[in-house]
């Protein structure tokens, strides 16, 4: 009876063990460390199953294994039994599953996770997140590019999960997001203590072409190149060095973007406060050329005070050349103050005003009638341009080339580069013009020929040609024309054919035109004048004498 009861109990226990649910392969189970030997931990996972796990699976990156007999651990059951009758288990895979559950929750809550960088891969680094391996892109390591990531390796620190896909086993994390958030909090705290106008100390962290970034103790401010000094600064490195501690003034704070604008020159005396007194209009000063542009050159009068010499104020004679052909950078020059605009902080300077106006100087040394010599610089449709002293030009108009030839014909006798002589006929300093005459070198034959002739004079001319409209006559080599209507006061005698070439005729001068170089002559005017003179001398028709009697008496008197 007793034996029968014992068998029944054994059978019941056996059936109970068969009916007990064994863990599924591919699940995480709890186990107990029962021994540590040969670099492995032997773990009893229950259900009369034991397995072995390498000790390294219990170690965090860069740390020693932390495991001892009696410890309860979770492992991943890969297979219930292997060829040796042992369970195939993995602590690493259990940690991974546990980590994925934890990380998915953190990702959903947008919470930070702790991890350690343990390896370098293409484009970034690998991070252990307590069992799960994540990818850290190189751009997400720090707010600025990191040249040496050695100090960050193996160091436990927070990360932000950017993206994760459990099915593919991908996790992407960012260290930069944590730093930016921390930095933003720090910036907000520092900015909250700053006010515009404050003077603070800062350290130069970075230098660019347009300025320098200055660390104010957790927050960076921009010191623009134009706010470093009152004078022109071509590059910030001229006055700043990285790591240097400088004193700056807070110019502007943008509370929304947390941007801070700084200035150094604001802590110095503004030289423009004394500009008007130190540089009165019309005064001449020495300066240094600091910059050359297409429209002029900037000249520094003193540190912080620059003026512009416009291209039109650079030279009396060089009108269409680049300023770089007249002055060079760093050259010392004398300049005259032409205008000051204190509101716009502008000074207009003149370079040519410090030198004598070459046209005024020429007018003083070359009065009208002076003979000059120069090279033909240019030939145009209206005349010649002759190079003169003082790097200026004078112009010979077509009408001043020759007395005998038309200007269009006379200009054909000249070539560019010819050395010619001329006479100064006019100097206009305001319009910067000098008029020259080549034909005046030989004097004026017309003036010489008619030197004693005035309007009303009676002269004797020689007929040189007979035409339908009148006759051509010559006087001292100068030719004139007498129209048919001026040949006689008697209409019947106004016939050109009654004259012959070579005849000598007395005529009256009615006009002397120096410009057209012509004498106005008339036989008719001579006859009328003679008649008038006779009437005045021998009587008048009112006294009873006839015109014939008067003229007869006049002729008899002449005899």
Automatic annotation (TrEMBL):
Domain S1 motif, first and last residues per copy: 26-92, 110-176, 197-265, 282-352, 369-439, 456-524
Top-level division of the source organism's lineage: Bacteria
GO CC terms: ribosome
InterPro entries on file: NA-bd_OB-fold, Ribos_protein_bS1-like, Ribosomal_bS1, Ribosomal_protein_S1-like, S1_domain
Keywords of the record: Repeat, Ribonucleoprotein, Ribosomal protein, RNA-binding
One Pfam family linked to the record: S1
PROSITE patterns (UniProt xref): S1
Family under the similarity heading: Belongs to the bacterial ribosomal protein bS1 family.
Function: Binds mRNA; thus facilitating recognition of the initiation point. It is needed to translate mRNA with a short Shine-Dalgarno (SD) purine-rich sequence.
PANTHER family: 30S RIBOSOMAL PROTEIN S1, SMALL RIBOSOMAL SUBUNIT PROTEIN BS1C
Protein name per the record: 30S ribosomal protein S1
Provenance organism: Sinisalibacter aestuarii
């Amino acid at each position: 009876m007793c034996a029968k009861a014992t068998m029944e109990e054994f059978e019941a226990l056996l059936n109970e063990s068969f009916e007990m649910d064994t863990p599924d392969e591919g699940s995480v189970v709890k186990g107990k460390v029962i021994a540590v030997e040969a670099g492995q931990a032997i773990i009893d996972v229950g259900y009369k199953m034991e397995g072995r796990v390498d000790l390294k699976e219990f170690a965090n990156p860069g740390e020693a294994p932390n495991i001892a007999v009696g410890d309860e651990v979770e492992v991943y059951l890969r297979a219930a039994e292997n060829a040796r009758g042992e369970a195939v288990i993995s602590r690493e895979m259990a940690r991974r599953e546990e980590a994925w559950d934890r990380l998915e929750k953190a990702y959903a809550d947008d919470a930070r996770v702790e991890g350690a960088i343990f390896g370098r891969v293409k484009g970034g680094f690998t991070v252990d997140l307590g069992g799960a391996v994540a990818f850290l892109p190189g751009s997400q390591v720090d707010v600025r590019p990191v040249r040496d990531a050695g100090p960050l390796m193996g160091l436990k620190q927070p990360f932000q999960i950017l993206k994760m896909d459990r099915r593919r086993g991908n996790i992407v994390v960012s260290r930069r997001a944590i730093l930016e958030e921390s930095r933003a909090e720090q910036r907000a705290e520092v900015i909250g203590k700053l006010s515009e106008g404050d003077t603070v100390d800062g350290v130069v962290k970075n230098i660019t072409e347009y300025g320098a970034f200055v660390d104010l103790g957790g927050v960076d401010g921009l010191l623009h190149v134009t706010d470093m000094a009152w004078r022109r600064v071509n590059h910030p490195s001229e006055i700043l060095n990285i790591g240097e501690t400088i004193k700056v003034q807070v110019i502007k704070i943008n509370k929304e973007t947390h941007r801070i604008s700084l200035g150094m020159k604001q802590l110095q005396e503004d030289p423009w406060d004394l500009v008007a007194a130190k540089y009165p209009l019309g005064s001449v000063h020495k300066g240094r050329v600091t910059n050359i542009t297409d429209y002029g050159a900037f000249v520094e009068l003193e540190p912080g005070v620059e003026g512009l010499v416009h291209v039109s104020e650079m030279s009396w004679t060089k009108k269409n050349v680049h300023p770089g052909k007249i002055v060079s950078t760093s050259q010392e020059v004398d300049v005259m103050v032409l205008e000051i605009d204190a509101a716009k902080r502008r000074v207009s300077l003149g370079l040519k005003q410090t030198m004598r106006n070459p046209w005024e100087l020429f007018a003083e040394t070359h009065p009208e009638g002076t003979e000059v010599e120069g090279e033909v610089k240019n030939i145009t449709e209206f005349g010649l341009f002759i190079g003169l002293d003082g790097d200026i030009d004078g112009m010979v108009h077509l009408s001043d080339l020759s007395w005998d030839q038309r200007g269009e014909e006379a200009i054909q006798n000249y070539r560019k580069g010819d050395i010619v002589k001329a006479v100064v006929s006019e100097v206009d300093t305001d319009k910067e013009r000098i008029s020259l005459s080549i034909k005046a070198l030989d004097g004026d034959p017309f003036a010489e020929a008619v030197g004693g002739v005035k309007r009303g004079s009676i002269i004797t001319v020689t007929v040189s040609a007979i035409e339908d409209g009148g006759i051509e006559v010559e006087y001292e080599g100068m030719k004139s024309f007498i129209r048919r209507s001026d040949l006689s006061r008697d209409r019947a005698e106004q016939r050109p054919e009654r004259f012959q070439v070579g005849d000598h005729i007395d005529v009256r001068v009615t006009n002397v035109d120096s410009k057209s170089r012509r004498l106005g002559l008339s036989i008719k005017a001579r006859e009328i004048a003679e008649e008038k003179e006779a009437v005045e001398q021998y009587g008048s028709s009112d006294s009873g004498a006839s015109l014939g009697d008067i003229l007869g008496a006049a002729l008899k008197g002449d005899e």
